[in-house]
Amino acid sequence: MAGNKKSTEKDTQKSSSSREINDLLDAIIQEAQASQQYDAYFVTKAQELLDLDAECFQVIAKRFQKSGPHEREILLQVIRNFKGFEHIEYLQEFVKNESFLPRTGMAILDLFNRSDVMVESGLAGRLMDLDHMVQRIKQNIAMDNMDTGVVQDYLKQGSKEQHGILLQLIDENGKDVAVFIAGLFREDAKAGDRAVKMVAKHQDANAFAMLDEVYKRTAKKDIAKVLRKMGHALKQKGIEVEFSEKKTEQSAVFQTASLPKGRTFISKVDAEGYRLIFMLKPVSTYEVKIFNIMMNFSQGIHDIEVINALRKETHKFIDKLLSDKKTEFMEVEEQLGAYLVQEACTISQQQGAIVSANIEQWKSCYSEVLNTQKQPEIFNCISADSIGEADRSAEKIDTLLAGTDIGFWFVVSKDARESWEKMRGILESEIEIPEAQKQERIKEIQDAALKKYFTAENMMPVRRRLEETAYYLYCKDQQDNARTVLALAATFDEADSTPEDNVFCVKVIERAFSFFDEAYQSQQKQQQMAANNK
Predict the structure, then answer these.
(1) 188 with 154: CB under 8 angstroms?
(2) Theoretical Cys-Cys bridge with 335: which of 107, 173, 212, 373, CB 3.0 to 4.6 Å?
(3) First-to-last CA distance in the chain?
(4) Bridge partners of 329?
(5) Hey, which residues does 264 pair with through a beta bridge?
(6) DSSP 8-state secondary structure symbol assigned to residue 204
(7) Which of 261, 24, 7 is closest to 144 using CA atoms?
(8) In terms of Cα–Cα distance, which of 345, 266, 346, 355 is closest to 31?
(9) Cβ-contact 118, 126 below 8 angstroms
(10) Among residues 182, 314, 320, which one has the least CA distance to residue 260?
């Protein structure tokens, strides 16, 4: 009887602990879905879970198994801060046996790469192949033409892999996924039917729009039946949708001209962290809205303006923009521009700043591409494995700082100005100070500047600037440098890492103080020459 009583008490405690863990997971997921959370947030939450129960991963694993794609991505942010090998073993079994989004697989692969645990041979290659498959399909979707070979390669995948790939395409490409589903119908009607059923399960306006686009491309009667049934169910919920079949029955003599695709241009990030984005959106046959957005990696949205222009005027505007000698612009896809604007808007909101009301007009114009991109573009270009193999030596860092403006990020900051004033005070002191003592005091200022600039709060903006710098270098065919810059950004996530231990952080500050010293010596020479000429 005593043994049964102890067993019952133990089960009660375990049940109570599970409830507390799940309650905390609910709160984490809710907060992460409501607004962007930084790495420090997930580090703290992982520790809170471990404080509740050192064996909490068993509960998290069950939650992970049952969660949808977006919840899994949030849970992975927590799991990556666990130590040991229990979670690594679980995730290896998970990717071998379960269906998952390829981007989730890449996040798991990144977690594997950060651990010291040996991962089963071939697993990394499989995860990278799935991600590569998605990128090939997305490239075809962007060109509005599915290559037969790409579709056939997809059909060679297992059922679980096909399911995960299609779910990610639905999540990221919206109604444009119709290009791919139509391609499936051309190669394998059963595969096309399975894709339609998967989309139809969502039972919302977005799913209806996807299937409506598939119907336009295939004219399949079975899809028309699904659309009528779904449309009826949505209207009962108060959601108005319109099936394209009705439009063809009442076609007008004069058809509306289709609007051309919008264009997006982003500037290179300047030394102070500012960037300009111009997004041009045709809103009628003759009129285009031009959104001029200035943002900063620390402050978010600085300003957003909108003007209406005639289409013929926009050609002159684009030519002028690309011929600007002071600011370099690159043309990118709409979804990337939308991702950067949304990210900046989130930063502004987190800081309690008021964003111009023009942001609502922008959201209305770009509603179709909002939230379609889930990560910085550079991670769609460079694999996690190649980042881990990048050169992070002190010599390579010196080369990068000399060849890019990364070395000036600190120089133009408020912290640098304060450091320079202190350094100049020592160098110009009227009190006789031994040279060795001067250098010692300057070294103390330098060490203080390192800690003050590379704080936990400033790490995320610096990291994001490094990621965007890597994308710029990648677009300039400097893939090797791009990988190194990404690898340097990743060092900010290393456990127990401090600015003093980070070679990159130390090099940035050292280069700045070297620049200060050169400027001071140059000033002294000029003053001496001026005195000699008198």
Answers:
(1) no
(2) 373
(3) 106
(4) 267
(5) 279, 332
(6) S
(7) 261
(8) 346
(9) no
(10) 314
CB neighbours (10 Å) of residue 345? 21
User: Is 188 in contact with 125 (CB distance < 8 Å)?
Assistant: no
pLDDT for res 504: 92
Q: Is 387 in contact with 487 (CB distance < 8 Å)?
A: yes
Alpha helices (runs of H) in 143-220, residue ranges in sequence order? 148-155, 159-173, 178-187, 189-200, 205-218
Measured from the Cβ of residue 356, the count of other Cβ atoms closer than 10 Å reads 16
Identify the pLDDT of residue 10: 56
Asked if 217 and 182 touch (Cβ cutoff 8 Å), the reply is yes
Whole-angstrom Cα distance, residue 437 to residue 426?
10
Task: With a cut of 50, list the residues of the chain below it in pLDDT.
Answer: 2, 246-257
pLDDT value of residue 258: 53
Long-range CB contacts (< 8 A, 24+ apart) of 144-148?
A: 144/179, 145/179, 146/179, 146/180, 146/182, 146/183, 146/186, 148/183, 148/186, 148/187
Other Cβ atoms closer than 10 A to 492 = 19
3-state secondary structure 443-493: HHHHHHHHHHHCCHHHHHHHHHHHHHHHHHHHHCCCHHHHHHHHHHHHHHH
What is the C-alpha to C-alpha distance for residues 481 and 466, in angstroms, rounded to an integer? Answer: 11
- Residue 381 amino acid letter: C
